[in-house]
């Protein structure tokens, strides 16, 4: 790998995995981000304010710790300006884009961006400067269309979001960015197919699946029979209404189970549409591990993802996974779990009932899931990413 990279990223996505990996490989020129918590005032605040009493937005911010292998001298952030913009409801990623362009990407020979939809001008400037441009697609490019349709089917459940013309304008910006890019990285075959369907040149696409920390394999599972676990934001995109209907169907069939949903709600879970599971709300990280330890199987009936890391965490814990093709999953149907059609509660209920009623099948799929997850660790992700970037 001959180029040094400038990385554009808002937030602590995957614990800053990409800039950290490039820094470790000696090819990071600059990392442009909005705000991290390695500033002295934020470190003091984290020490003095008990974690359990911190408001959730603050707790998330204080969790943005830079990894040790990411040198501070390469990090270009703008903490005060980002906080000011956030207070007024503005996007702080605009600030990092402005700084990156103003500094001509820190003298890098290549640009790596995983921003969504607003980095087109930065990619144009990078190409004008002769930089190689790498774009990482972190979620299916047609997710906006999916959400529009789901909100149309279930009016009033979530805010309307972007108007159809804005969704289409965003897809058009993606097409233009793909045309500018030398490489387009996708985490799953689902995302790859969605890019091709929207006009991306297949020759530019590279599949680089994500990974999880190895500590997930250290969890000593004590599954409670009949305990179903969902982890993630609760809303239409994650398919929680589909899961709720599947739970109601299981009850109609007389199936014994305990479905637990852990994650912050984006919807009113007291509505009849979501009746069925037990909703735990936002759960601390330590408690999440306990939920995984005691779960019998994992379910994620999502409508759109890039590659949901949570399903890898479940697999590492030895849980069979029931999900949809839109999860970007590495689950093979009938091997590590089951794939069910998006948005259909009866097939989901069928597979849940099958696993709940067959311990031998459950154990066999869970063991296979744990074995397969070993190929999707941070180390393997780093190897795949660096190898892919060397190709062009």
Supply database-style keywords:
alpha/beta; 13 strands; 41% helix; Rossmann fold; 392 residues
Percent of residues in beta strands: 5-15%
CATH architecture of the largest domain: 3-Layer(aba) Sandwich
Rounded Rg: 21 Å
What is the average per-residue confidence, as pLDDT, rounded to a whole number?
Answer: 92
- The name of the CATH superfamily of the largest domain reads Glycogen Phosphorylase B
Helical content class:
40-55%
Number of helical elements: 15
Beginning-to-end CA distance, first to last residue: 9 Å
Write the layout of secondary structure elements.
Layout: E1 5-8, H1 17-24, E2 28-32, H2 40-48, H3 56-62, E3 75-76, H4 79-87, H5 93-102, E4 110-113, H6 120-128, E5 132-136, H7 143-153, H8 164-180, E6 183-186, H9 189-197, E7 205-207, E8 227-231, H10 240-252, E9 258-262, E10 278-281, H11 285-294, E11 297-300, H12 309-316, E12 321-323, E13 337-339, H13 345-356, H14 359-373, H15 378-389
Helix pairs in contact: 1-15, 6-8, 10-13, 12-14
């Amino acid at each position: 790998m001959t180029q040094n990279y400038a990385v554009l990223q808002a937030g602590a996505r995957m614990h800053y995995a990409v800039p950290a990996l490039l820094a470790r490989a000696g090819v990071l020129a600059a990392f442009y981000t909005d705000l991290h918590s390695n500033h002295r005032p934020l470190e003091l605040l984290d020490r003095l304010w008990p974690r359990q009493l911190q408001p959730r937005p603050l707790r998330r911010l204080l969790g943005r710790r830079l990894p040790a292998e990411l040198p501070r001298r390469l990090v270009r952030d703008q903490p005060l300006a980002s906080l000011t913009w956030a207070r007024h409801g503005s996007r702080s990623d605009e600030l990092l884009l402005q700084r990156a362009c103003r500094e001509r990407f820190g003298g890098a020979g290549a640009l790596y961006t995983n921003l969504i939809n607003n980095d087109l001008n930065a990619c144009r400037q990078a190409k004008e400067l002769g930089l190689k441009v790498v774009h990482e697609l972190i979620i299916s490019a047609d997710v906006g269309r999916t959400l529009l349709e789901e909100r149309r089917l279930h009016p009033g459940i979530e805010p309307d979001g972007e108007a159809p013309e804005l969704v289409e304008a965003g897809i058009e910006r993606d097409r233009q960015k793909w045309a500018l890019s030398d490489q387009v990285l996708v985490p799953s075959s689902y995302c790859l197919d969605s890019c091709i369907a929207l006009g991306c040149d297949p020759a530019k696409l590279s599949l680089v699946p994500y990974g999880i920390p190895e500590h997930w394999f250290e969890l000593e599972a004590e599954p409670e029979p009949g305990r179903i676990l969902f982890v993630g934001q609760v809303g239409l995109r994650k398919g929680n209404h589909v899961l709720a209907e599947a739970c109601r169907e299981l009850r109609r069939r007389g199936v014994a189970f305990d479905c637990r949903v852990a994650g912050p709600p984006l919807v009113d879970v007291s509505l009849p549409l979501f009746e069925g599971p037990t909703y735990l709300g936002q759960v601390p990280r330590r408690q999440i591990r306990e939920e995984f330890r005691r779960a019998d199987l994992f379910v994620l009936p999502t409508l759109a993802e890039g590659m949901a890391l949570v399903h890898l965490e479940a697999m590492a814990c030895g849980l069979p996974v029931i999900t949809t093709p839109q999860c970007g999953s590495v689950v093979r149907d009938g091997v590590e779990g089951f794939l069910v059609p998006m948005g259909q509660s009866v097939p989901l209920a069928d597979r849940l009932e099958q696993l709940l009623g067959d311990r031998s099948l459950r154990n066999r799929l869970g063991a296979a899931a744990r074995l397969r997850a070993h190929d999707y660790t941070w180390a393997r992700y780093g190897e795949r990413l660096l190898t892919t970037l060397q190709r062009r």
